[in-house]
């Protein structure tokens, strides 16, 4: 039998190791920076033992954010810019990984794999694009080959395509990590992530078949967009703006009146739908042409709170429900207080009470998916695609 080439030999060696060091990378819809989580794994699937060794978010510079925004969540963009950014981002993320490893005093040679989400620039589930003849689609850029060659580390990337190929919408992938890291027999749990978009995984006390993972609607994306446009701030730090505004009930009702909220579950969305045009359309529908901008931020914050609490009350009105929050929205007091006051029967805490750093959770998820791609088996969870995801890029 011919010998395996050096890449396949190395790959097999990593998959068969007793313990693996993996880096998970997440660059979310908020475009705030690159989350880098260095994790140690033993085993896979339900036998996974995992430890977060280091975590950092390296913030993006304004110039870089501006470049990505040119091609982000827009129907028409420069194809040249997409092509340039696809390569640039892969190399850039690789450089940020090297920077983080240097700060942590770790030699890249010690790391077995990188699992990279890339940057979503367009998410197009069928219910949103409505183009006849086309199915669900999504596009993440930041090619894995560039990461692998820049760092010298085996890289696994582009996780969402397999999920779509196997019948999903390409998101949320949180499901696979949440089941492994967050389930507890005997407890009804919700793992709620409030990033640009809010999503949750419902983990019932016993039946894995009833696990549900879905996007809910906007998380911080509309609040951030209004803060950028009207206050020249990237976000509403500690809800300082929302807390001084008044919620406009008429606008809030108009924002809530959209077919997305009536779509079958599970469903996904993104800033392609939830953007300032969505807000302008809602204003138009109720002929509210002038609104004080502080009240607008309060109303958008209430919109996020209301969609999340409506969703949880409608689908999981259970005694003893425990909700664990992650993502930047866990640090938005307006949203968290809104949830606490409208879901009085649920215990709400952030995921640190589970030993999961709330800012690191999504980067950990991708590290975990990378570990599964290397040595796991497809997991059947309810009706979700039972597939291993990710494409392999070798350094040499
Ligand atoms: N102190 C704070 N006060 C209010 N909001 C905050 C605070 N810190 C972070 N945020 C919010 O969290 C956002 C970043 O969240 P996160 O990093 O979870 O998003 P993301 O990973 O890009 O999103 P997604 O999960 O949708 O891809 C910021 O843009 C801001 O809206
Ligand atoms: C297409 C895409 O990038 N979706 C993200 C986004 O951010 C939150 C929400 O929308 C979620 O569906 C998803 O990310 C997480 C990591 C997921 O797939 O679980």
UniProtKB/TrEMBL annotation:
UniProt xrefs under SUPFAM superfamilies: Actin-like ATPase domain
Pathway where it operates: Cell wall biogenesis; peptidoglycan recycling; Amino-sugar metabolism; 1,6-anhydro-N-acetylmuramate degradation
Source taxon at top rank: Bacteria
Keyword Kinase: yes
UniProt-listed CDD domains: ASKHA_NBD_ANMK (cd24050)
Enzyme Commission number(s): 2.7.1.170
Pfam family, one: AnmK
GO BP annotation list: 1,6-anhydro-N-acetyl-beta-muramic acid catabolic process; amino sugar metabolic process; peptidoglycan turnover
Keywords recorded for this protein, A-Z: ATP-binding, Carbohydrate metabolism, Kinase, Nucleotide-binding, Transferase
InterPro entries membership: Anhydro_N_Ac-Mur_kinase, ATPase_NBD
GO molecular function per UniProt: ATP binding; kinase activity; phosphotransferase activity, alcohol group as acceptor
Catalytic activity: 1,6-anhydro-N-acetyl-beta-muramate + ATP + H2O = N-acetyl-D-muramate 6-phosphate + ADP + H(+)
Protein name: Anhydro-N-acetylmuramic acid kinase
Source species of the chain: Mucilaginibacter phyllosphaerae
């Amino acid at each position: 039998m011919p010998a395996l080439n050096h890449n396949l030999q190395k790959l097999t060696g990593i998959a068969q190791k007793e313990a693996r060091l993996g880096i998970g990378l997440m660059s979310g819809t908020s475009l705030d920076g690159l989350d880098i989580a260095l994790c140690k794994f033993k085993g896979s699937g339900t036998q996974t033992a995992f430890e977060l060794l280091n975590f950092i978010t390296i913030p993006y510079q304004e110039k870089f954010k501006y470049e990505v925004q040119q091609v982000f969540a827009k129907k028409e963009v420069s194809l040249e810019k997409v092509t340039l950014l696809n390569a640039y981002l892969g190399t850039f993320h690789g450089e940020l990984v090297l920077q983080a490893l240097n700060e942590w005093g770790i030699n890249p040679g010690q790391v077995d794999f990188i699992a990279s989400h890339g940057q979503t620039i367009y998410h197009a589930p069928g219910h949103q694009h409505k183009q006849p003849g086309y199915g669900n689609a999504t596009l993440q850029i930041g090619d894995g080959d560039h990461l692998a060659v820049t760092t010298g580390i085996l890289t696994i990337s582009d996780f969402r395509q397999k999920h779509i190929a196997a019948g999903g919408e390409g998101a949320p992938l949180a499901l696979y990590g949440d089941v492994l890291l967050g389930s507890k027999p005997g407890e009804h749990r919700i793992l709620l992530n409030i990033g640009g978009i809010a999503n949750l995984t419902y983990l019932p006390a016993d039946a894995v078949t009833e696990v549900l993972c879905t996007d809910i609607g906007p998380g911080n994306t509309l609040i951030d967009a209004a803060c950028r446009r009207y206050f020249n701030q990237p976000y509403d730090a500690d809800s300082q703006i929302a807390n001084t505004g008044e919620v406009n009930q008429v606008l809030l009702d108009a924002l809530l009146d959209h077919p997305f909220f009536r779509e079958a579950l599970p469903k996904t969305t993104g800033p392609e739908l939830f953007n300032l045009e969505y807000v302008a359309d809602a204003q138009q529908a109720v002929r509210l042409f002038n609104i004080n901008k502080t009240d607008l931020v309060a109303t958008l914050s209430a919109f996020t709170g209301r969609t999340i609490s409506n969703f949880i009350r409608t689908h999981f009105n259970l005694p003893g429900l425990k909700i664990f929050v992650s993502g930047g929205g866990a640090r938005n007091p307006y949203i968290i207080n809104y949830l606490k006051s409208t879901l009085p029967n649920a215990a709400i805490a952030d995921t640190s009470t589970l030993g999961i750093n709330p800012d690191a959770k999504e980067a950990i998820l991708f590290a975990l998916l990378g570990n599964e791609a290397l040595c796991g088996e497809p997991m059947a969870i309810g009706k979700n695609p039972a597939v291993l995801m990710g494409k392999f890029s070798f350094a040499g």
